Amino acid sequence: MSLENNQQVGPSAPPPHLRVAGIEKRFGGVHALKGVDFEVARGEVMALVGDNGAGKSTLMKVLAGALVSDGGAFFIDEEPVVISNPHDAGALGIQIVYQDLALCENLDVAANLSLGAEPVKSGWPFLPRFLRPLDDLEMEVRAKAAIDRLQVRTLRSVRAKVGGLSGGQRQAIAIARAVGAECSVVMLDEPTAALGVAQTRQVLDVVKRLRDTGHAVVYISHNMRDIFEVSDRICVLRHGANVATWKTSETTADEIVVAMTAGLDSGTNNAA
Amino acid sequence: MQLDTSFSPIDRLRRMRETRLGSFVPVLLALASIWVYFGLALPLWDFWSDPDAGSIRFIFLSPRNIYNLFMQSAVIATLAVGITVVLLLGEIDLSAAATAGVCAALLGVLVLAGIPGWAACLIVMAVGVIMGAAQGLLIAYVGIPSFVVTLAGLLGYQGLMQKILPTGNLNIGDPFVRAIARILIPDLWGLVMAGLLVLAIAALALRRQAERKARGLELDTNATLWGQVAFFAIIVFAAVLTMNAYRSVPLLIILLTGVTAIVGWVSTSTPFGRSIFAVGGNAESARRVGMNVRRIRVVAFGIVGLLAAIGGIFGASRYGSVSYTAFAGGSLLLESIGAAVIGGTSLFGGRGSVWNAILGALVIGSLGNGLDLSGASAADKLMFSGAILLLAVAIDALSRPAGNGAR
């Protein structure tokens, strides 16, 4: 019902880095994704919006390999690829920052950033890798580099426990963890949902840094102000299908909200 | 953002517990207050209230009693170190004392059958690992809560111990096994070892500081650095000198320190140890970064089994016998869990240290010892232990970060 509306962006869009076409997903009798097309380019923030149940989270989980799609094609730089589990997605450079962040509050920032890929000191060949001494200085160096790359200025020390940090700082650390793992596509699920004004500011700055460093950013949010501040394009889903994709500079919040809630056809009817 | 202005007492407690040295403070305070009470306050009170007393008798703080205190607490401490590992995961092991009992009984039967002591020790350590890991498999792969699995283990292993020891008692005369508790390190050697240990710690701390400087990382202040070394040196030398004043440092204590050092090093300085803390802090996070949460749980329970077996060997060596009441049927289990918790290891997972478990064991041991010396009844002892445990858990609950409150 909606694929033809994609020409609202048309050929002037940058060449996509990650592109999916005709994604289908069913949960039992529920048809959650009905042939959804989606794309995001490097150096671009693509906002993914829709009302509750529109399929945003499902689409994102399919892209991250957390859910297996029932149909559709995946392309990285127009090369067909297969994403059937989180490991595939990680190997293709696709990282997701879930809303719950999944940080270990009992560990410090450096430990969280290198969790699961801790550097070990060289020179202990007789020990299995999981028993070799941790190189926690290297860990701190890497953490500092990652934090500096994202310019999280309020963070005083990479040795601070995550449990004592603010919501914005935690979000930034979760993003830094995703970005640290050689990734080209970062998907952010409602990164500012629980944050105050100053914290939101901080996270949006981090998102802009990601764009400036050539990452492809997928930004899921309900907050129109954030979306219009940070995104380059906006993709609207409704009832598990595409409504349309707009360039952010060529649309308004009202138009997006109408598209989210009523779809495009009725929206244009109302306007007419 | 730069300055947190909230400094309520609980916030301070929280901040203090987050630092490495600070986590020792509550348990050290508990230990100090118990020692002051039994060692100074009670004898002075007796002296003043009794006109016939000729002199003050500091029985509790005598080197002889401290020596016995260390030896009495050694078995509790060994088990507490193991239990700390599963507590860090956010699990619990109720079967540790029963496992220790089975291993000790098996050790007694094996050496009676003529198997050399060292081989028997290795066999029961393997048996301990299997007993622990079997429970770990049920917890991790079948998904039964650890509380239930290890409760079943507690009952089952108690029965197993009675099967191995139908009479409920067995003397152990094997020279190798007895030697663990009997061998004393000569006074001079004890001091030399303590000195070398302190020098090594200081050298490591300095080298680390130099490396931090070279890599441009934030530095510890000199006060923190030397404070840590001094703190460590005081504890080591005080312990060695006290034990030398009565006899000498027993091999048992050296072995306990060594085992704790290994478990402590694995838990804080290896990828495996980091994964234990990660699972305890946020299992979902650990799973997402690709850690095998189930395997980590099984290994952790294997470690408890190993330490329970070592505790059983230590106990058999110290008592010269294995009895049902000394292990599976007695208060050992609750004392060792209590020791781990009093040491400041969180029951909610992710926070704690095996070294604190040793201090916790000393608190439990001192309390029992002091109440015994002052002629308190068994009923008083139980009630005091309960109160101390409650206090420790209350401190834990208060010092958890606020964000975790809902979990």
What would you say this structure looks like, in words?
The complex is a heterodimer of chains A (about 270) and B (about 400). Chain A is α/β, with parallel strands linked by helices and about 270 residues long. Chain A has a domain at about 1-95 and about 185-190 and about 220-270: 3-Layer(aba) Sandwich (Rossmann fold), CATH 3.40.50.300. Helices cover about 35% and strands about 25% of the residues of chain A. Chain A is built from eight helices and ten strands. In chain A, about 50% of the residues are buried. Mean pLDDT of chain B is about 85; it is low at about 1-5 and about 405. Chain B folds into two domains: about 20-40 and about 60-185 and about 250-400, Orthogonal Bundle (ABC transporter involved in vitamin B12 uptake, BtuC), CATH 1.10.3470; about 185-245. Chain B is built from 16 helices and four strands. With about 400 residues, chain B is mainly alpha-helical. The chains are: A alpha/beta (about 270), B mainly alpha (about 400). The interface of A and B includes residues 86 and 116 of A.
In short:
The complex is a heterodimer of chains A (272) and B (407). Chain A is an alpha/beta fold and 272 residues long. Chain A has 8 helices and 10 strands.
Question: Which helices and strands occur, and which strands form pairs?
Answer:
The complex is a heterodimer of chains A (272) and B (407).
Chain A: E1 18-27, E2 30-40, E3 44-49, H1 56-64, E4 71-76, E5 79-81, H2 86-91, E6 94-97, H3 109-113, H4 136-150, H5 167-180, E7 185-189, H6 197-212, E8 216-220, H7 224-230, E9 233-238, E10 241-247, H8 253-271
Parallel strand pairs in A: 3-8, 3-9, 6-7, 7-8
Antiparallel strand pairs in A: 1-2, 1-4, 4-5, 9-10
Helix pairs in contact in A: 5-6
Chain B: H1 9-18, H2 25-49, H3 63-88, H4 96-112, H5 117-142, H6 146-164, E1 169-171, H7 175-182, E2 184-185, H8 187-215, H9 222-246, E3 249-250, H10 251-269, H11 271-281, H12 283-288, H13 293-319, E4 321-323, H14 332-342, H15 354-373, H16 378-398
Antiparallel strand pairs in B: 1-4, 2-3
